[in-house]
Design goal:
Number of strands: 11
Strand content: over 45%
Oligomer: single chain
Helix content: under 10%
Distance between the termini: 34 Å
Shape: globular
Radius of gyration: 18 Å
């Protein structure tokens, strides 16, 4: 399971879409990947070049984060791929995903609404998060019984696919308090 959790497909990120190989960046990446941005209490803007480490996959990848208000963030990826069918954007969450690309959390009394751009294919998946052998062992752990901790069995993931050799993908996320 540890090896699975190290894959970019298990994190909130863009990755090249390939049917032939699992895309992955170099490890380690010998580059300074620092976003440049500005902001204050209510708004934020940052951008960074994310190509380093993705040689052979991305020929362009510029990511911009814009938060014009505290309840909104727009992630924009300007991309071009050397190989593959396009790009895949993964949004993983510990909250359950609904059929309208929402992720809700009853603990925090909020949910996120994700706007899916036109021309983009969307799919909600529930990835296995634990090895069944480990789950059986943890049934008898005292701390889990004592504190009522229940580890998640799956990792909800929204996957957006954008086909082509290059493009711009805008993903808008709105935080809605209940």
């Amino acid at each position: 399971m540890n090896e699975l959790l190290k894959q970019c497909q298990r994190h909130n990120m863009l990755a090249p879409w390939s049917d032939d190989a699992r895309s992955k960046p170099a490890n380690p990446i010998f580059a300074d990947l620092t976003p440049r941005g500005t902001g204050d209490k209510t708004k934020f803007h940052a951008t960074m070049d994310l190509r380093p480490g993705w040689e052979g996959w991305f020929t362009q990848w510029q990511r911009t984060w814009d938060s014009p208000a505290p309840d909104t963030i727009v992630i924009t990826d300007e991309w071009a791929v050397e190989k593959g069918r396009g790009v895949i954007f993964h949004w993983t969450t510990s909250c359950p995903c609904g059929s309208r690309a929402t992720a809700s959390s009853s603990r925090a009394a909020r949910h996120r609404e994700i706007t899916i751009p036109a021309g983009v294919e969307a799919q909600i998946e529930h990835l296995p998060l634990q090895d069944p052998r480990r789950t059986a062992v943890e049934q008898d752990r005292r701390d889990i019984i004592q504190f009522g901790w229940k580890l998640a069995e799956t990792q909800p993931r929204l996957t957006l696919r954008q086909a082509g050799r290059c493009g711009t993908l805008h993903v808008a996320v709105r935080l809605i308090l209940k």
